[in-house]
Amino acid sequence: MPELTRSRRLVVLAICCMSLLIVSLDNTALNVALPAMRRDLAADVSGLQWTIDAYTLVLASLLMLSGSTADRIGRRKVFVTGLGVFALGSLLCSLAPNLEALVAFRAVQAVGGSMLNPVAMSIITNTFTEPAARARAIGIWGGVVGVSMAAGPLVGGLLVQSVGWRAIFWVNLPVALAALLLTLRYVPESRAPRPRRPDPVGQLLVAALLGSLTYAIIETDPLFAAFAAVALIGLLHYEPRRRDPLIDLRFFRSAPFSGATVIAVCAFASLGGFLFLNTLYLQDVQGLSPLDAGLWMLPMAGMTFVFAPLSGRLTAARGPRPPLLLAGTAMTAGPLLFAAFAAETSDPLLLTGYVLFGIGFGLVNAPITNTAVSGMPRAQAGVAAAVASTSRQVGQTLGVAVIGAVLAAGAGAAPPPEAFVAAARPGYWIITGCGLAVLGVGALSSGRWARRTAERTARCLTAEGGPGGSPTGGPEGGPTGGSQTAAGAPSS
After folding, report:
1. Domains defined along the chain, listed by start
2. Which one of 129, 233, 318, 395 has the largest count of C-beta atoms within 10 Å of its C-beta?
């Protein structure tokens, strides 16, 4: 990628953030619409789970393919295609005549979405080459998630209450069109110096693993759980034997990189489950309108909006350890109020739980992304970023699947209001456990031992040859692995 002026780099960052905004806004707004969709489409808890998981499942399955394809044929080209497909999927979702069609069209949306976030992150990584500047850019990127969490429930609630749930998908169309035109005008084309070869077998194994696992959880089918286990074994056996694997398992020798993957899964499982339970509770149990439910969740969204950019700056200045420990603490304390102290029954406790969870989620994003992409081969930045994005979507998919299954098991397919709170309690304990995992893994993967494993991994990649090019930046001008920590902050 040619060297860009500072103003041009900021324009590129803004365009990439627009793509994240429509993807994130769509998900958060859709959560508020779940009760209205259930009434309109005669859906049960399982049906509501599939309206969310059809999207996140397809997205997770295709993110790494999209990242490697973008590195091969051109990042701007794939990004523009993704914007077009996402807009088409949004239009089709707004016209869906029944639940089955909506689930299918959500999958079309996800095909486009898979070409946006990892490719946008790859563009950012190759635009902001200095570690501290990259950390700040990623902090702004993470702040967009806070904007979507703040705007999503409000915009979704307003649209559902005034027009109907189908209008949620209309919002994506003008934003996608504007982002597409701006991309063609301002974003330069870039690709890896030596593209990776396609890995269709690895791609099929990933899709089979995620699809089978999600279906097994939602539909409680042990046969599909067995399919998922077979796919996992096949993936672990096949990928190390390829020259250009879809997933380079050598990356996971780095404790910070592996930790970022685990933390992403746990954090987004918490988010998916927390939003799922609270959206249904506020509207079905408390009887709030979609707009009022969105206003009640505003403190959580506001805290994410405030703390996400602060986390980026803190990661740039002090590394990933402080924000990860603070995030894990807050993401444990918030759900614990619901699990142990019945926060639903007390307005002050309810709001405190929302504030704590929002703070934790705002803090966790920047260190996840920065750790995942820093110190890895920048010639394959799309793949490294896609691993982090895939972990997020896998987490959200599993969070909705597991929490929804626990809720349905405790109170049936359509839980009555009087049974909802008790049925949701085990789900909140699971979410609390995910917060503890963020805290524990964050502490383990950000200390001196973890940094030494990152340095050994960088040296190993240098000696063995990074996948598809120089292991730590090479022709595209990235810093060498030894000059920065796994978090992207200058090493002390």
Report:
1. 6-187+242-467 (1.20.1250.20)
2. 395
